[in-house]
Design a protein that fits this description.
Length: 223
């Protein structure tokens, strides 16, 4: 097996349980209400929760005659708050196998974290679950419209993490096709973790490895 200078992890669906669709949908509905839209169409809620693009966001806001910046600020605020509430209530938590990461310092030089979630949400997760010491660098995105252009599969934040770590060969661990594509665009090998929420997902891009748990990731590095 290839020896890696660094291993970088996704957050949602890899380290912590992913946010529930209903939670994100309700947060988005609250954001619409905050900017004066009391009856947002379900298809528009689905579009935002499903990963709206910059162009799609502007089209959506035009349909309601909304200022895109104001709506997106409301959406990001309520989305983040809904996530923090679930973490604090224990309704959303860290996966048990994150304990496998504590031994990675013996198997690789450094570890990082790159997520499509808000950077401030990632900071909360690392603090709340006492994971800070496991990572040498981490990136989420700022709560801006333009940050949507930098989400995976764009490798922007993976490239930044690799530069921080000074890594020439690295492995990215994720739970979605966009994670696999982003890794390959960043010239990284990829691990697809088949958690319960993605167990039956069909990928059009093959990951370098497929595993069931983070213990399997540690085992790969130990080969």
């Amino acid at each position: 097996m290839t020896e890696y200078d660094a291993v970088i992890f996704d957050n949602d669906g890899v380290l912590v349980e992913p946010p529930a669709y209903d939670t994100q949908s309700e947060a988005t509905r609250t954001a619409f209400e905050a900017v004066g839209v009391a009856d947002a169409d379900r298809t528009h809620l689905d579009a935002v929760v499903g990963g709206v693009t910059v162009d799609g966001l502007y089209e959506l806001c035009t349909a309601y005659d909304l200022d895109p910046e104001s709506f997106w600020a409301a959406r990001e605020h309520h989305d983040e708050q809904s996530q923090l509430e679930k973490f604090r209530a224990g309704a959303r938590t860290c996966y048990d196998d994150v304990s496998a990461l504590s031994g990675l310092s013996d198997l690789t030089s450094s570890c990082g974290l790159v997520s499509n979630n808000h950077h401030s949400t990632i900071e909360f997760v690392l603090e709340f679950f006492e994971l800070h010491s496991l990572f040498d660098t981490y990136y989420g995105r700022p709560k801006t419209i333009e940050s949507l252009r930098l989400k995976k599969p764009n490798p922007h934040y993976l490239d930044k993490a690799l530069a921080d770590l000074g890594a020439e060969s690295a492995l990215y661990v994720g739970d979605s096709e966009s994670d696999v594509v982003a890794a390959h665009r960043a010239d990284m090998d990829s691990v697809f973790v088949r958690r319960a929420h993605c167990r039956d997902v069909s990928l059009s891009t093959d990951p370098t490895y497929e595993v069931k748990t983070l213990h399997d990731v540690a085992a790969l590095l130990d080969e």
